Amino acid sequence: MTTVEETDAQAAKAEFLARLKEFEGLHCESGVLALDPVNGPMIRHWAEAMGDTNPVYTDAEFAKTTHFGEIVAPATMLQVWIMRGLHAGQPGGDSPVQRLYDLVVEAGFGSVVATNCEQEYMRPLRLGETVEYDQLIETVSEEKTTGLGTGHFITTLVNIFVRTGEGAEERELVGTHRFRILRYTPHKRKPKQEFKPRPRRVVNRDSKPFWDGVDEEKLLIQRCTECGTLRLPFGPGCNNCASLEWDTVEAGGLGTIYSHVTMHYPKFPAFDMPYAVALIELDEGVRTLSNIVGIPHDEVRIGMRVALEFVQHDADLKLPAFRPVDQEA
Amino acid sequence: MSLKHADSLKGKTAIAGIGATEFSKDSGRSELRLAAEAVKAALDDAGIAPSEVDGMVTFTMDNNPEISVARAAGIGDLTFFSRVHYGGGAACGTVAHAAMAVATGIADVVVCYRAFNERSGRRFGSGVLERTPTAEGVELGWNMPYGLLTPASWVAMFAQRYLYTYGATTEAFGHVAIADRAHAANNPNAYFYGKPITMEDHQNSRPIVEPMRLLDCCQETDGGQALVIVSAERAKDLKQKPAVINAAAQGAGRNQEQMSSFYRDDMTGLPEMQVVAKQLWQTSGLTPDDIQTAVLYDHFTPFVLMQLEEFGFCGRGEAPGFVADDNLLMGGKLPTNTHGGQLGEAYLHGMNGIAEAVRQIRGTSVNQVEDVHNVLVTAGTGVPTSGLVLGQA
Q: Looking at the domain assignment, is residue B28 inside a domain?
């Protein structure tokens, strides 16, 4: 079933295509003369740039020994001779090709990409020959959708001639240059994956002293000033003696992996999946949760000796992490 | 309920009605509607009119207030309402609260319920990424920046230590999953009805949080489950055979955290379940040998092993051997989760397991164990929890 809107859209497309098709076969330019005659220096530069060492392009003596009998230009230089020069624009504003381009841009197909180029070579060009060319719009495609977007392929054909005859009134076709572009509307890009930071620390008056220590690259352990029991994570009171008085000691930074997991699912954009999270028993006898760095997640083992370091994950998040060390440490 | 002495709850109350919605992945209706449907079904099952209900208990995690459910289910004045905290650890606790209220005369008919759209709505497994700095938020906050964000991850930390300590392999977890799914295969109400699994299936299932795989994790379910608690005397005269509450207990352990009690001396057991077990044995006067079938909370398979040890069905570190001998299956020493558990039937935060225990007492389970006198039921593990011993009148 099609809706009225769909039918209208189809009709508008068909009408637009008919307008584009009117450009097929129109000549844009005729008898445009090349800026330079076929010449030795440009051939040499081109051959050097392309790494083409065939002496028939550059060595007159050698060329005489070939069936050409003289230096010829490499056939694939064809487009070189019809280039408009670095600062030249396109054909005039009212040329059919420019009107065609204006039409598709107005219709929303503002992007352009060259898709393919075909050339035919009727005969080699010789030194001193000056080519001239005609350009015409060969075909305009119906609306197509590619990996890039939706638009119309436009194929132009350039026929390249050399003047011959007594009064140079004849034109000999020496090559053709068929060039296809896609004028298109790009697909809507998926919004760039925005940076997903790790979950933040949860800070209140009980946990703040610990995180302040981390910011100074110290791993602090709480110590009950009444009974001396060490504790992590931070909390207001001692489970051993119920005292609310405490101070801190700085951890030496060595410990042993007590347990660990590897996170596979669900996928959290803030983390490089899969990743290891480990519970480390510090040499002081208390445990702390952290990440293991320096080894792949599947090499993390209970009993591994690890040492403390600090990782700045983003501007606002520094965290302790542990790295395996010499197992005797 | 005390660790020091038996309490006075034994035999005084009974579960007289059970009722549930269908268990699905997308209920298509509100959680409140699911709660109301489950409550009405449980009252119908008991043969009690909504107007007789004067007490209601649910989970703090439940989104349906007692008064909202009461309004929707035709329930009038309430003299008792209560909530139990700590996720699935609340399940048997709701019955414990109800039993205390009925035994003390504070209420006569108490309905316990739990209803959620846990699959189509908020999924517990999707991860905790943000918390406000309350005491609980700060507790979780010690885990979050490092990426330990899901219930599976909190349980896996214990599971890894358990395997290491006892030299066990993940096949021990597999035996738990296989038993659940074998039972679910016979249960038309189970999501995995007709779909048993093999050890190969278990071992080949994808990792979720190593050492746990997909088949170690319970389902996510939309649904509601309700239970009706009255005095044992009253229950005798009602429609159904009563499931007498011979013990009901809650438990939290020393240095307990909600799900990440990583800082205790040992991580191979469930001290809070030990607190529950001691009370249940003490008050019921029973021992593991007196239990014919159990419903052991199974959000994740590893904690089923630890529960077997905490209740004394086997010794410390012996659960991998106990399950490998097919003891959780029909005909084993302790047919467990005969409804299929939360892996096989549905994840109703443990409330569907209590309903199965009632069916075992009534003799109406799809996997009926012979000569059932006493059934053990447990609630959420790794959290402060609860348990029940149900028996024949």
A: yes
pLDDT of residue A89: 64
Kindly provide the ipTM of the predicted complex, given to two decimals.
0.96
A176: CB partners within 8 A, 6+ apart: A118, A119, A120, A157, A158, A159, A160
Please state the domain count of chain B: 1
| Contact status, residue B301 vs residue B195, Cβ threshold 8 Å | no
* B324 located within any domain: yes
C-alpha dist (Å) from residue A208 to B133, B142, B251, B261: 11, 12, 31, 21
Q: Do B210 and A199 touch (CB under 8 A)?
A: no
Q: Quick check: A1 pLDDT over 60?
A: no
**Residue B164 annotated in active site:** no
Residue bearing tokens 């004849």:
A170
CATH 3.30.450.280 describes domain A10-38+73-83+91-186: no
Where along chain A do its domains lie?
A: 10-38+73-83+91-186, 208-327
Nearest CA in chain B to A198: B145
Contact B160 A268 (CB under 8 A): no
Answer yes or no: is B48 within a domain: yes
B153 falls within a domain: no
User: For A236, which residue in chain B has the nearest alpha carbon?
Assistant: B135
Cβ B211–A302 below 8 Å, yes or no?
no
A168: pLDDT confidence band, cut at 50, 70 and 90? confident
Model pLDDT for residues B83-114, shown as the tens digit of each residue: 999 999 999 999 999 999 999 999 999 999 99
Cα B282–chain centre separation: 21
Q: Has residue A91 got a pLDDT over 80?
A: no
- What CATH number is attached to the domain comprising B279? 3.40.47.10
What does the angle CA A117 – CA A122 – CA A126 come to, to the nearest 5 degrees? Answer: 105
> A245-248 long-range CB contacts below 8 Å, 24 or more apart?
A246/A222, A247/A222, A247/A223, A248/A209, A248/A213, A248/A220, A248/A221, A248/A222, A248/A223
